[in-house]
Design goal:
single chain; extended; disordered N terminus
Length: 154
């Protein structure tokens, strides 16, 4: 199940807000070791947890860039179809990854679910393997002289 804070609605900053968003972006990005604190009109103050600060910084950055923003909250355990949607692959591919032991799935009754953290672990390992593969291809191409640029006539 997917939950959005404002179903099918996105927020976009207006022209008047851009200066303030730039200031907020600078404040959230200034990581000198001090915490970001929220204060309401009554003076109640609380430190913003780091996870919320990172999310808020991403939202503010996107709004400052003029992008429409929406918030999507996921369940801790995902269906195979939802995991496939997040990976942008067919559900059958996710089933194959589970069967091959590349993604951990837990049984929930007759259905299998994938913990969000396990899906993110898989994507980190997949991306690292891709980077390593690209680095190896680059190294091999350089050894074969494929990256030599011929002299251009002047």
């Amino acid at each position: 199940m997917v939950t959005t804070l404002s179903p099918r609605r996105f927020v976009q900053a207006n022209d008047v807000e851009h200066a303030a968003l730039a200031e907020v972006e600078a404040l959230l990005g200034d990581r000198d070791g001090s915490s970001v604190r929220l204060v309401n009109e009554a003076g109640h103050e609380i430190a913003l947890p780091e996870s919320a600060r990172r999310l808020f910084a991403e939202l503010v950055r996107a709004l400052a860039d003029g992008c429409p923003v929406g918030v999507l909250a996921l369940q801790k355990e995902l269906t195979i179809q939802r995991a496939a949607d997040l990976l942008d692959v067919p559900a059958a591919h996710v089933v194959r990854l589970i069967e091959d032991g590349e993604i951990v799935a837990v049984s929930s009754g007759e259905r299998r679910r994938i913990r969000f953290d396990d899906l993110m672990d898989y994507t980190e390992h997949r991306d690292e393997a891709r980077r390593d593969g690209l680095a190896e291809l680059t190294r091999m191409s350089e050894e074969m002289g494929r990256y030599d640029v011929p002299d251009r006539p002047t």
